[in-house]
Predict the 3D structure of the following.
Amino acid sequence: MSKILKVLLIEDDTIEVMKLNRAISSLKLKHLIIEANNGEEALDFLEKKEMLPDIILLDLNMPKINGLEFLAILKKHDTLKYIPTIILTTSNNQKDLLECYKIGVAGYVLKPLRYEDYVLKIEKLLMYWSMNVLMKL
C-alpha cells in the first residue's frame, strides 16, 4: 500500500505551483505539498528541521539560488542529502541533465506541454515514491 508523502515543491512560477496542486487535487491524492518559491526559502525551511519532506520536487530555473546551486548545497549536508530530489523542469538541456545526475539527483522529469500528460507524469512520479521505503531523518 502506498503512503501519504510530504512533498517540498521548490518552484518560483505561481502557475506551475497551482498546476501541481490542481493535478494532485484532481487525482484525489492526499499528499502534503509544502511550497517554497526559491532555493533560499527552501533551505531556510529545511534547516529548521520541523517537518522534513519525504521527497523534493525542484525546478531548475529560479532566482536567487537556482536548482543546480540548491542541489549542490543540499547534497553537501550530512542529513538533508538523503532526501530524494527530483528535478521537475522544462529544460531539456543535456548539460543540466548531466550536472544534476553528477550532483546526485534521484530523477529528472520534463514537464510536458499538455496538462493531461502533466497529470499522468505527476501521478506516476508520486505513486513511485509513495511505494519506496524512505529514510526517516
